[in-house]
Amino acid sequence: MTTLDFSGREQLYRQLYDILFQDIISGVYVPGDLIPSESELMSKYGVSRATARRAMEMLSNNGMISKRRGVGSEVISSRPNTSLSRVTSYLKKNVDDRVVAEKRLVDASIIPAPADVAETLGIPEGTQAYRLRRVRYAGDEPMYFEVNHFERAFLPHAVERDFSKESLRAYVNDELGIQWSRAQQRIYAVAADDEVARFLNVGDGEPLLLVRRVSIDMDNVPRELVMTYYRADRYHLEIELDS
């Protein structure tokens, strides 16, 4: 079960918001479902009503839930209205397991930027880069493997943080005040190599969906490269066609 960090490094309502946000976008709760009430969140995570209410307000402000009098808070969208992505294609889970999801840290380190990372971020090859690798689980089952890259100078203190407990999104957006103007995303069909196969508990060469996203800041500079490897037996690509 995902737990909160009460050390004071990150505000509790932001941690709770991130847990609920991830549950919604990963399909633990789908549009039409009711998320836990404030009282249930208080009991489950050991937080105050004010903390639970603030997290719910953030979800509501993002257009993801709507409070129905006498019923509860209903999920109305799996995508926040503040999201960078305006495309109408997205990945969806193939299973509705209702298991609380969590990200587990593989490693966080400073590495020389490989050629592809350097080219994407517009920095010289070999420049110090911060690399964060995590696996998202649903219960005990690995669902996807995610690798984030930033130039170290852009997030100089990131290596000191524990993003298995803390939200990377909240750290970048809220604590550092970094805003994104847009993102570029591509989706590929790939085969799992030895390392990724081990992290995802699949066979070597098993099919995966790779989502490659580049986040661009308000100065039109690419700052983040994210490579996410989804198990093809757990996700599919869904496309909506608007008239």
Produce a short descriptive summary.
The protein is of the alpha+beta class and 243 residues long. The chain has six helices and ten strands, in the order H-H-H-E-E-E-E-H-E-E-H-E-H-E-E-E.
Descriptive notes:
The chain starts with 11 loop residues before the first helix and ends with a strand. The mean pLDDT is 86. The protein has six helices and ten strands. Helix 2 (38-45) crosses helix 3 (49-61). It has two domains: 12-81, Arc Repressor Mutant, subunit A (Orthogonal Bundle); 101-239, Chorismate lyase-like (Chorismate lyase, 3-Layer(aba) Sandwich), CATH 3.40.1410.10. A hairpin with a 3-residue loop joins strand 1 and strand 2. The chain has helices spanning 12-25, 38-45, 49-61, 115-121, 168-175, 194-200; strands at residues 65-68, 72-75, 89-93, 101-112, 128-138, 141-151, 180-191, 207-217, 222-231, 235-239. The radius of gyration is 18 Å and the shape is globular. The protein has a six-stranded antiparallel beta sheet with strand order 4-5-6-9-8-7, sandwiched between helices. It has a two-stranded antiparallel ribbon with strand order 1-2. Strands 3-10 form a two-stranded antiparallel sheet. The protein is α+β, with helices and mostly antiparallel strands and 243 residues long. Helix content is 23%, strand content 35%.
